[in-house]
Design goal:
Blueprint lengths: L18 H30 L13 H10 L5 E3 L5 H7 L4 H8 L39 E2 L10 H16 L17 E6 L6 H13 L3 E6 L3 E2 L2 E2 L9 H4 L13 E6 L3 H18 L3 E6 L19 H9 L2 H11 L5 H45 L5 H13 L5 H14 L6 H22 L26 E3 H15 L3 E5 L15 H5 L4 E3 L4 H13 L3 E6 L9 H8 L2 H4 L9 E6 L12 H7 L4 E3 L4 H11 L6 E6 L6 E3 L15 E4 L4 E5 L3 H14 L4 E5 L2 E3 L6 H9 L2 E4 L7 H12 L11 E3 L10 H5 L5 H15 L9
Parallel strand pairs: 1-2, 1-3, 3-4, 4-8, 7-8, 10-11, 10-12, 12-13, 13-15, 14-15, 18-19, 18-21, 21-22
Antiparallel strand pairs: 5-6, 9-16, 14-20, 17-19
Helix pairs in contact: 1-3, 1-4, 1-10, 1-11, 2-3, 2-8, 4-11, 5-6, 5-17, 11-12, 11-13, 11-14, 12-13, 13-14, 15-21, 17-18, 20-24, 22-26
Bound molecules: thiamine diphosphate and magnesium ion (MG).
Length: 810
């Protein structure tokens, strides 16, 4: 930046500025806007000429973002969507090089710090996890939580980011965490398109922020369209701030401050943001800034042209109300600058942006070309000594002639060459194999790493501490074991909070938190509204800002109402930022058997498929659950813990170190040794299997029972595979649908653990029926696996192998 320039994020307080300073500041803003526009124009061209796959840009939204950037301070957070490049440039959280690197999917975290080439363009993020896995000082940086493509999907996270400021301000015990907050003075800025305000997540988060009174500032970028669908079909009265007027706070009520401003009116925008954010920051009142009359100069994205669905009149109106054109007019009319100076700024911007784009492209191409040359040479050398010479030379020349080659072309050619020379035993072929192994390792790191944090604080690296008992250890209700565990952890770590429906005053519907709100206060043990998606978002935002949240979903069946947030946002966070962001959120819920269609679900297949990137713990009792909480609360990765609904009143022995002992992830336990059949089961069905084991013993069958304890990760010690070496027979019992959770376990045991090679009978699964579980004990008996079902299935398997010893029951 030239010495005379004023930082674009400096406050636009005209009272404190000389006219010269003011002019400089506005001109600097204009430069950022035109550079951003050039980036959009060039970006689109790069897609249309095939260098990038897809483009979506922030043209038409530039000027409002300059104003928003002025109100954004160190310590603040953004959770937004793909239109915000100007804001990111103006705050310095991104730049043109990073913009183009992401557009080209540059798989290098130095070039694209937001996603290391993993995300579509204009998906922003700052990195707050250092390379060593430690937190960066978020109070000293501007912070951007990682974008997701699902429009509106970020709203729950936004709520959580804002809620963290409330906790940091109101809970004085958190003052020691000053690398995350300075007395809660931070604002969480959200952006969302007008069309996406139709999403339920928007309304859920909007209401929750009004209830919680948190510093959340939502800007709606309103360009009257959502791709081709006009406002008339999106929003009642075609006006989101109009219909949200009931949220306006009044004397003696909570609520919002609501603002409406035109997206091309620079001075009005600057003034509005200054006013809005002041209230939001100082008073912790959420604000809505509805920015209307925005445009899309290039249409929605590179996927199609807006001329197809916008009227001629609308297109003419958009041309005239282009925000940069209007800013330019205002600057000239206000004698801030001259036409000539602005022309000069525009010409310089054009060249500068083009230079940045070329530099990034050349840089990326150089790396790939080097690999391409190596691969071509290896193939050409191999061609000299094998029969498939012509095919190999053709392969190499096609590779060399590739226009804008990618690594898929290079690696693909080597793999093809190896297939063409399967029978050639020459050292030149070995060279290809070893080159491929090196490249595979690099590409694995580029494209397949960091699903989890992979740091020293990972729960996988936390030491195992055994549960200890002494002569005085009492048998108490399972819920009381959990209660003691939570109590000890809340005492130990002031950053732990728990919240959810009925978690506060009554200590959750099964009493796990009973008495803890009165002991630790309602900022730490907190009731929430019925809003599963934003309970998860609330937890995610807190976890991103250094707190240790336990977000409770009252019953497992209701996890469906949050699955989009868990799957899209939480589970993908580490992967999509290449480990630059983490959210060690613990989701607590209870499930499996009880009563009724929505109170006894066990949708494990759904969970296993939607939640890669989150540990899935299925403790068989409350002691195991407590050990898992003790572990997870000391780690830095997200996890779901599903307690057994029918286990809270069963008696368990209270460990003396109830807040200290740990149950490691991925460590399967053999609950009963046996020789005839291996049964793998988890959660509530384990008790049924153990009961069946007794009668089976009387029938002369000795089963081995294994509890994997966690499904992600699954039995990392190969306990199931080893057991099959002994029994040669496998039965998986759970209460999910057929082919759901049990199919996942089959894949792990038979394929990943190579259990297939030990089998001498067909592997079997025993699950629930295909429909939802009906209400009542008979409904349960005829739907979910019973002791009778387990005995008969096991017996049937033994009958198949030895019908003389085990004659058929029926
Ligand atoms: C949950 C979800 N539904 C649909 C889409 C596909 N989609 C991408 S952008 C878009 C339009 C969004 O319009 P708006 O919110 O007004 O933002 P704008 O692009 O106009 O700035 C749609 C439907 C998506 N990405 N996510
Ligand atoms: Mg729109």
């Amino acid at each position: 930046m030239p010495e005379t320039a004023i930082n674009a994020t400096d406050k636009l307080n005209t009272a404190e500025l000389s006219f010269d300073d003011f002019k400089k500041l506005v001109i600097e803003d204009y430069r950022i806007a035109v550079e951003s526009r050039q980036a959009s124009l060039i970006g689109r061209r790069e897609v249309l000429t095939g260098k990038a796959k897809f483009g979506i840009f922030g043209d038409g939204k530039e000027v409002a973002q300059l104003a928003m950037a002025k109100a954004f301070k160190k310590g603040d957070w953004r959770a937004g969507y793909y239109r915000d490049q100007t804001f990111m440039f103006a705050t310095g959280m991104s730049n043109l090089f990073e913009f183009f690197a992401q557009l080209y999917a540059y798989p290098d975290v130095e070039k694209d710090p937001a996603s290391a080439g993993r995300q579509m363009n204009c998906h922003y993020a700052t990195r707050y996890v250092n390379a060593d896995g430690n937190w960066a000082n978020q109070a000293e940086t501007m912070n951007c939580s990682s974008d997701i493509s699902t429009t509106g999907g970020h709203m729950p996270r936004l709520l959580g980011l804002a809620y963290a400021s409330k906790l940091y301000r109101q809970n004085k015990e958190l003052a020691y965490l000053n690398q995350f907050s300075v007395s809660g003075n931070e604002v969480a800025f959200g952006t969302i398109g007008n069309g996406s305000t139709s999403e339920g997540l928007f309304f859920e988060a909007f209401n929750a922020a009004g209830v919680l009174q948190v510093p959340m500032a939502i800007s709606v970028w309103d360009d009257a369209y959502a791709i081709s669908v006009p406002a008339k079909l999106q929003t009642t009265k075609e006006d989101i701030s109009e219909i949200l007027k009931g949220f306006q706070r009044e004397k003696d009520t909570n609520g919002y401050e609501i603002f409406k401003v035109r997206g091309w009116d620079y001075p009005a925008l600057c003034e509005t943001y200054e006013r809005a954010i002041k209230v939001c920051r100082e008073e912790h009142v959420p604000v809505l800034i509805h920015v209307i009359e925005m445009t899309q100069p290039q249409g929605h994205s590179t996927s199609g042209s807006h001329e197809r669905y916008k009227s001629k009149e609308r297109l003419v109106w958009e041309d005239e109300h282009d925000c940069i054109l209007q800013m330019r007019k205002w600057m000239i009319a206000s004698a801030i600058t001259t036409e000539a100076e602005l022309d000069e700024i525009e010409a310089t911007a054009k060249k500068y942006v083009r230079d940045c784009q070329r530099q990034v492209w050349n840089d990326l191409s150089e790396g790939i070309l080097k690999e391409l040359n190596e691969a071509s040479q290896l193939i050409e050398s191999l061609a000299q000594v094998v029969a498939a010479q012509d095919e190999l030379l053709l392969l190499a020349s096609i590779l060399r002639d590739c226009v804008d080659p990618g690594r898929n072309n290079v690696v693909g050619a080597i793999r093809k060459a190896l297939r063409l020379t399967l029978k050639d035993d020459v050292y030149q072929r070995e060279a290809l194999i070893s080159w491929l192994a090196d490249e595979n390792a690099k590409n694995k790191e580029r494209y397949n790493s960091k699903l989890f944090s992979e740091t020293l604080r990972s729960p996988l690296n936390i030491e195992k501490v055994d549960a200890e008992y002494n002569d005085e250890s009492k048998f108490i209700d399972g819920r009381e074991v959990l209660n003691a565990c939570f109590d000890a952890n809340f005492e130990r770590d002031k950053s732990i909070v728990a919240f959810g429906e009925d978690v506060g005053a009554i200590g959750d519907v099964n009493q796990g938190f009973a008495g803890l709100q009165s002991k630790y206060g309602d900022l730490r043990i907190t009731d929430t509204g019925i809003r599963e998606a934003t309970i998860i978002g609330q937890g995610m935002g807190l976890a991103m800002r250094g707190l240790k949240p336990i977000a409770e979903i009252q019953y497992l069946d209701y996890l469906l109402y949050a699955i989009n947030v868990i799957s899209d946002d939480l589970a993908s966070l580490s992967y999509r930022t290449y480990g630059g962001q983490k959210a060690p959120l613990i989701i607590r819920t209870r499930g499996h058997r009880l009563e009724g269609i929505w109170h006894s679900g066990s949708p494990m297949g759904l969970i296993l498929n939607a939640m890669r990137g989150i540990h899935i713990c299925v403790p068989r009792d409350m002691t195991q659950a407590a050990g898992m909480y003790n572990l997870l609360l000391r780690g830095d990765e997200p996890a779901l813990v599903i307690e057994c609904l029918n286990g809270y009143r069963l008696k368990e022995k209270l460990p003396v170190n109830v807040g200290e002992f740990t149950v490691p992830l991925g460590k399967a336990e053999i609950l009963k040794q046996g020789t005839d059949i291996t049964i793998v089961s988890y959660g509530s069905t384990l008790r049924i299997v153990m009961e069946a084991a007794k009668e089976l013993e009387e029938l002369g069958i000795n089963i081995e029972v294994i509890d994997p304890q966690t499904l992600h990760p699954f039995d990392t010690g190969n306990v199931c595979g080893q057991s099959l070496k002994k029994t040669s027979k496998l039965l998986i019992v759970d209460e999910d649908l057929p082919g759901a959770g049990s199919a996942y376990i089959l894949q792990r045991v038979l394929e990943a653990q190579k259990g297939y090679y030990s089998l001498d009978a067909q592997p079997r699964t025993l699950s629930a029926k295909e429909h939802r579980p009906p209400y009542g004990s008979d409904g349960d008996y005829f739907t979910k696996p019973s002791v009778d079902d387990v005995i008969e299935t096991v017996y049937g398997m033994m009958n198949e192998t030895d019908p003389y010893k085990f004659p058929p029951i029926f």
